[in-house]
Every structure is written in C-alpha cells, then in structure tokens.
Amino acid sequence: METIDQPSREQFARELDRNFSVTASAGSGKTRAITDRIVEIARDRRALDWLAKLVVVTYTNRAADEMQQRTRQKILESGLSLEVLEAFNRAFFGTIHSFCVKLLAMHGHHLGLPAKMELITDDEDLWNDFVQQQTTIGRSLSPENRRVLLRFVQARQLMELSRKYVVDLAVAQPKTPCPDASFEEVYAASNRRAKNIPKAQANLRRWEKRWRDTDEFVPWPPCASTAKEFVRVWREAFGPLREWVNACALCIAAEVQRDYREFRLARGVITYPDQVALAGELMRLPEVARRIRENNYRVLLDEAQDTDPQQFFVLLEIVRPAEATGSFTQDRSPTGGPRPGHFCMVGDFQQSIYRNPAELARYRALHELLIETKAAEELKFSVTFRLDRRQLDFVNEMFDEILNNIGGQVQFVELNPRPDILPGQVVRLDLDQDVDPNLSEPRRAAIEARELANWIRATGLEKLRADSWRQIAILCPRKAWLRSLRDALLDVDLAVEIQSESDREGENPAYAWLTALLAIMVDAEASYEIIGVLREIFGLSDDELARFGQGYPARFQIVHRTREPVTAPAVLNLLARTREAIEMQPLFSAVQEIVRATNLRERLRSLPPEEYADLGADLDALLNAAANAEANGLSLAEFANYLRANFSKTRETRPSFSDAIQLITAHKAKGSEWQAVIVPFLSRKVWGAPVRYPRAIKTVEADAAQIIFDRTDVTAELEQEIKDTERQEMERLLYVALTRAKHTLVVAYDREFFPTANGQVASESQMKWLRADAGDTNVAVIAALPSKARQCRETAARQWRVAHEEARENLDALRLETGWIDVARQTAGAFIRTSNPSLFARVETAVVKGADVWKEAEPELRPATIDNPAMRYGVWWHVFAQSIPWNLDPSVWEKAFEASSTTSPDPARSKREWKLLREYVSGHRDFLAGNMYSEMPFLWRIDEAMCLEGIVDLARFNRETNNWFILDWKTNQIVPGKIDNLRTQYLPQLAYSERELKGEWERLRRLLRDNLASEIADSG
C-alpha cells in the first residue's frame, strides 16, 4: 500500500534533472529518500560522470557514514557494474566543514593558505596570545570616529564582542560623523507618580556635561526610572547616537575578526567557522569560482534547517553556472540559480533547534526564493515511519496550536500514518501531588525522579512496549536535570547511561587519558602533564606526588629512569620504558603499545559503567583513528596535537550497546529514536544561560545586529522579542522530544511539584510551552490521556519479526537509528591481538630488585640488531636453509651449500652441521615424503581476540597421511653436560605450541626432545 506522499517521494528519487527543496517531518524517512535518489543516479546512463561529482552533505559524520554505507549496499544489491561502484566510491559524503576542507586543499593557494593547516576547537590560549600582541584596534575607522567611539565603549568590550559574535567581514564604517543628540524632551518630561524621573534627569545632565566639555570616557548613563513613557523618550533621544556607535563597533569587530583569522592562519591553524568562511572567500574570486563550478558538483543537502547562511552560500555557489557572477541570493534570477538537477535540500523547519531565529528565517527565505524563481520545486514528506497511531494523533493535536506560524514561529506540518502503523500509546503519569513546596527545587526534583524510577521498575518492559532497557530514553531540556534521574534509577537497580548535547571529547576518559599519555610520550619533560597522568590514570595520591616531588616539579620526567623504592618512580619508569619501546615504531603500533603497557583498557573498565558506558568501544575508535592517521602520514606528535586540538569538540551521539536506560538531553536526541520515551519535569522552570555582555542580537526583521553593551541597552520591546524567540525554540525542541517515541510516549504530569511564589506553573516550563496548564488550549488533550501503560501483543510480535529480519542482514529491514554502522565500527575496532611463539621461550635476564623491575611482554617491538657472531650465524643458516631446493633430489642440495658456505661467519661449523643434516635425512627415508615449504608464514586462530603468527622454518605436508611435519632450526651451541638448559629454555615455547596447536606440532616436540638436542650436543 502506498503512502499519501508517495508521488512526492518518487518524484524526488527519479527526476534527476530537477532541483528540489523538501520539507520532511519527523521520522518521515528523509535519509531513505536521499539514498533512493542516489541509487537512481547510479542506474542512470550518466552515472559514471554524476556519481564521481556527487556531494552529500550531512550534519554529522556518523550520519554521513550511515548514508554512504546504506547507499553502497543498495548499489551492490542492484547488480550494477564495478565501474559504477568505483565512481560511487569517489562521491563525497560528510559534513559541510569536511567539504570546505576539500575545496581549500585544492584551491586554497589562491588565498595564500599554507598547504597544511591544523584544526583547533579550543583557541583560548591562541586568543590570549593574539590579544597580548594587539596594541591598537580601530584601523578601519577614521581617527576621529575611532576617538569618539572609544569614549563610549572600552577597547576590551570591542575585543570580546569580536570573539563572541560572527560579524559580516565586509561591514563598513558609517558615512556620517558622530551625530549630535538633543535631550530637551527628556529634561522636560515629568510624572508625579514616577519619583525617579528627577534622579534620571540629574544623572543625564552630569553625563551630558562630561560628554560635551571633556574628552573623558563617558559610558552610557543608566535610566533610573522605569516609567514607560519616560523610558520611551529617553531611548528616542539616545537613538541616533547609539545607532552610530553600534555601526562603528560592528566595523571594529569585523576588523578584529579579520586580524585574528590572519593571526591563526600565520600559525597554520583554523577553526570550523574558518573552514566555511575561507571556502566562501574562494567562491568570491571569479576565476576560482569558475574552475570550481566546472567540476559539475551535484549537491544533496541533509538537515538543511541546521545550515547557516555562510554554508548555504558555499553550497549554492558551487552549483551555479560556471559564468555566474555575484551571488544567487542577490541575482535572484532562474538563470543565475543552481543548475537543474545539481541542488537538492531536505530539512524540517519544525526541527530547527541549533540556529538562531535570524538564520532560521534565512533558511525559510531561501526555500521560498528557490520556489519563487523556479530554481527548485517544493516537496513535502508528511508520512512518519516512526510514530505509532496514538503518538501521531497526540502530536497533531498538541502542535497545531504551538507551531502556529505567528510571530516568527514555524508552521506545523500535520503528520500522516504509514500503511502498517501500530496502535501505540501515550501515557500521562500522575505523580504524587503531596509535595512540600518549601523544599528546595533539587529536593523536589529528586522526589519526582524517585517516583518515576519506581514506576518504570513496576511497569516493566512489556507494558512500555520495549524489548530492552536501552530502547527506553528519558529526555530533558537541561543536562543538569539528568543527575537526579540517574541516582533514582540506580537506587532501584536499573542501569543507566547519560548523554548530553554539551558532551565534549575531552570529557570522555578514553579520549582524555590516551591524549595525556601521547602528550607525555612526545614531551617527556612536561612535568605538569605527567603529574596529571600519575594522578588521574594511575591513581597516585597528592600526598605520594608531594613526597616524591619535594617541591621540584622537574623530578616528574620520563627521559631518564629513577631508582627509588616508592610508587611514583615505579610508574615513571614504566612510562620511560614504554617511551623507549615505541621510539622506532610507526604511529599505530606505538599507540597500541602505550595502551598495552599502561593497562589503559583495564583502567578504563574500572570506572563506574553508569557514568561511562562503552569506554572500550571509545578506546577502539581512537585506535582506529590512529590507524587512519598513520595512513595519512601523521607522526605520533602530530596525532597527539590533533587529539589535543579537538579536546573541546562536541561528541556525536551514537546508539548505546549497553542494556541501560538512556538519559539524554532533548537537543542530543535529535536524529535518534527509541521504542519508549519519557518526558519528566514538565512544570519545572527551565533556566536559561546567564547573559554575558557585550552581546550582539540579530532579530528576524533587522538587517544588522544590535550590540548590547550592558543591561541598560535592552529595551522592553527587545527583551520581549528575545523571550519570544527563546520560547519558540523551546517549542520546537519539545516537538523534537515528543516525536522520538516509536511505541510508547510517557509525560510526567507534575503540576504541584514546582509552583512559583503565587502557586502557578512557571511561564518558562515545558508545561506552559505545551499549552498544557489549567486554562491552556491543550489541557483537555493531556487530561484525556490514560494513566497506565499497557502491553500490546501486536507490537511485541512486530518487534520479534523485525529482529529476525535484521538478523538475516537484510539492509531494507534496518532503520537508521538502530546503529548498525556503530555495530560495524565496534566490530572493526575489536583489534585482533597477535602473539609470537618466541614470546613463550624463557629468556634469561639479569635479576633486578626494587621498583625498576621490567618484564617486556612484546620484545619484537625492539628494533632488530645483529650485534654478535652467534646471531649473525643464525641469520646465515636461515638464509641458507631457505635456498635449498627441498623438493628436488638431495644430491642437488650440495650445490646450494657450496654456494652459501663462502658467506658463512663460521665455515667450519657450517660444514659440521650440514653433515649432520644430510645424515639425518639419509637415516629418515620419510623425510621427503611430501611437499616441502621453507620459511612458511602462518596465522593461527587461538580465540576471538588472539592469534598466533610467525614463520615456520621448514614444513612438510604429506597428502597421503594428511600429516604435517614442522622443523624449527636452532643454532644454539651447547656442551653435552648442559642439554637440560636447552630443554629448559625451549620447552615452555613447545608446551604452549602443544597446548594451542595440539597434535599438529606433536612431531616437533618429539624431534627436539629425542633427536635434535643430542645432535646439537654432538656438534660441540
């Protein structure tokens, strides 16, 4: 059965010579739609040209990987040629930043960019260095304008503004000098009930006298009165002066941003915004833009609502005709727009939660411009493949009033059901209303969390219609709210895992600890970092560190070993030996050895799983990154710098592999789905982040940003507009949260838990944004919800069937959010560890007592050396034995010996042992009964994570008896009285081989024990 929007879906997939701007509602299968279009391109006769120039832009790398893998699978299932698959492999899948990096790598030299640039996400230190070098700002203003501006605004405020707000770098100073101001109406105003007006007028007189009669710094005077009419007159009097100051400040902010960018580029570092901005600069160079457009890129943009104007500029400009000039948004003609079939974007205005209102308005305007100019056709995907019937009806009823297209809010798009939709359920959880309002807000939140945890435990998976605990998510608008939920769930023995939209890479122990270890391996005298490693990774107390350091930080180094019988030197020596062991190793091997030598994996496992789930997988992902870095030619130092530069980067969400309830912020939940979703704390006030000044605000209607230097700059109208835009974003965030549930949605109704001082629900709460409080438009919808969750046999049967379909690896049965690509990543990250038989031979070493005891578990990490006659002879013997034509008659072997004996380090010994070998062959007629293999490599599976690898000196396979004979050359010289030493040295190795390889090496064991030892002894 077709869906109601099937014609639009087919049009998007098959009409390859047309552009489309698609609005796709929550769960409407936009990823599948993009995949279908790419597959149709692959089937087209022009596939080889088009696929290689395809640019698929997504919001996260994870989404790009999943889309690429899914599309590749469909192309393989379609039975298309290898040439098509090879062309597809050259298509770009990634974020806009990654694509901009690609453009800069090919054309950045036109901007004078260095060949290699380092990406940084935390530029605090770099910014401080820049500020210290800035002696003068304001070159972009005339001397007089600069002098006047700095009377009103401090240089420090202008610097802070330039860092916090991205300014149009082309902004110019005002064409007119600073205007005069008349305050006569202010002085003439009066109001008997407004007692502070005279005070405000007196302050203004003193300020005006300083402004007109001196050259002193004159910050804006505060308005002491709040009388509405007086405030209006006050602001009108200051209006022209403030507008001029605002324009000059933006000009200087743009200047500082240009200077800071040049400062970064001179040091070979860029930020994420730099990547896009510099790519935009390329597209403003006519000749470079023409060359880029000649590449004939075809852009497919996912999550268009999360794309900012600068990013849109880059993506639109690369698909315009080669000879186009200006920009599409300025040209506004169909002929100057994107070429047919070269630009498609898919987004949802309702899920815009990351961009400011002005940028959302720009996206809406671009969508309308594409449609009006006929540069693209509008399509809508309204059928949801995620929500069951009851959740779908609930969302339609609730959000028709909320997303109302009024005052800048977006228009709600009604959701339509899929053909095989399940019943679903939406539950109102009525919490205990007897709560003491005098308790602190955190205490009341803990009570609600405890009741919710008990309810989840009592209800169980079946009634929640979830097949595992990880398919249940609790969504909150603030990360701080998750802590009380975690504690309550743990108290009732339910496993939990916390994620949030503000998680940074450096907050993950696997990332932070490995980065710290690499940093000290690169800089062995970085005492501060070494102390951190000792404390955080190895758990040394501050007392231990203080007693060892004795006030001398230089003692914390791993260049030289330390001999002291206490803990700190032992760990330092371990790190020093590890550093020596990896000195000559490639990047990936070095990182592996660091992880092994420090027991990093085991140390990560010791951390509480409820706080840090799946750290092993995180570590494997880092090892995978090290392997990729080595493939790209990075050194250990460069890889360490890369990890440090991305310390503050936001971590991408990925599905959990642990069977734990997911505690996650609503922002982080975007793009994911769960079988059951619970939304608590509906009546709790959602506190916004504290306002810091100066700040720049760009409203929807304004052409330029308005600078707010302090609280007095915020007019009542502006304050209301800020509140409205914040409310509208939270309404869209609620839409995201309530459309994540596949089978069960639970809303915790807690109206009496968090009342305001007058006993009402806070206006900045989810309940108010949902219009669900008493007297609000949606209160009846909430009141009609059932208060108990019930199991559904039809849903359980569908889940069982889908699980078995997925087990058959049918890609069509998978859903994007099941995390199949993450499963593949985790499997790929489970590196097989190899061992060598020589590791199990006993090696005699000098006995070292005390803290400096070192057991090298992987001696093959040592660089190979041939520094003594015995080793040189052993190497010669192996080379000679490899040259013998074993499958020919033994009479031919003599020529091989004569040719090699001249290069022997010990010719007399060679002749004696060659004679022994010939005699052994003559006395064992079956020695040559089979195929002979010299220096044969092998890889033997031991278990899921370990294999044995090495080289067999000589192997014989007898096809008739299906039997292997293994011979291992041992060139040790030993006197007859020391035969037991030889056995002692090699029997552990043989015992291991016997245990792991069982009967296959039985002949080797007997040969060494019974024959070879005596023959070596006879050789003297």
Segments where pLDDT lies below 50 for 5+ residues?
Answer: 809-821, 839-867, 998-1020
Quaternary structure: single chain
Strand content: 5-15%
Q: Largest sheet at a glance?
A: 6 strands, parallel
Strand neighbour order, sheet with most strands: 3-2-6-7-1-8
**Whole-number average pLDDT?**
83
Notes on the protein architecture:
With 1020 residues, this protein is of the alpha/beta class. Helices cover 47% and strands 10% of the residues. It has a six-stranded parallel sheet with strand order 3-2-6-7-1-8, sandwiched between helices. The protein has a six-stranded parallel sheet with strand order 9-16-13-10-12-11, sandwiched between helices. Strands 17, 18, 19 and 20 form a four-stranded mixed sheet that branches. A hairpin with a 2-residue loop joins strand 18 and strand 19 (946-958). Helix 25 runs antiparallel to helix 27 (615-631). It is globular and about 125 Å long. Residues 809-821, 839-867 and 998-1020 have low confidence and may be disordered.
